[in-house]
Design a protein that fits this description.
With 106 residues, the chain is an all-alpha fold. It has one domain. It is 98% helix and 0% strand. The longest helix is centred in the middle third of the chain and has 104 residues. The protein starts with a helix and ends with a helix.
């Protein structure tokens, strides 16, 4: 009788160990699946961020090039306007000198 009880207890203990091992293996597999799922999600996010960065960088480069061209155009126009202003100032000064000369003559 004691031997039977002992065998029953050992059978229960073995059964509990097997259940524990099965639960542990299941939890380990679920964790591995969760890790894989998280890796895939992070990889997708990295790719999305990389694509967004490339898009923003290309737009920045394009806008910078446009601004540089516009700046060069403005510099050219500014140089042209400065030259015209200097020529007009010289003409005004000559006319003032002529006016002063003729005023003194009268």
């Amino acid at each position: 009788m004691i031997l039977t009880i002992k065998e029953e207890e050992e059978a229960k203990l073995t059964n509990m160990k097997n259940l524990f091992d099965a639960d542990r293996e299941s939890a380990k597999n679920k964790s591995a699946e969760d890790v894989d799922s998280i890796k895939h999600e992070l990889t997708r996010r990295i790719e999305d961020n990389d694509q967004e960065f490339d898009t923003n960088f290309n737009r920045y480069v394009q806008e910078t090039e446009d601004n540089a061209r516009e700046y060069e155009t403005l510099l050219t126009e500014n140089a042209k306007s400065s030259k015209e202003i200097n020529e007009a100032q010289k003409k005004i000064n000559r006319l003032k000198e002529k006016n002063a000369y003729y005023t003194l003559k009268i």
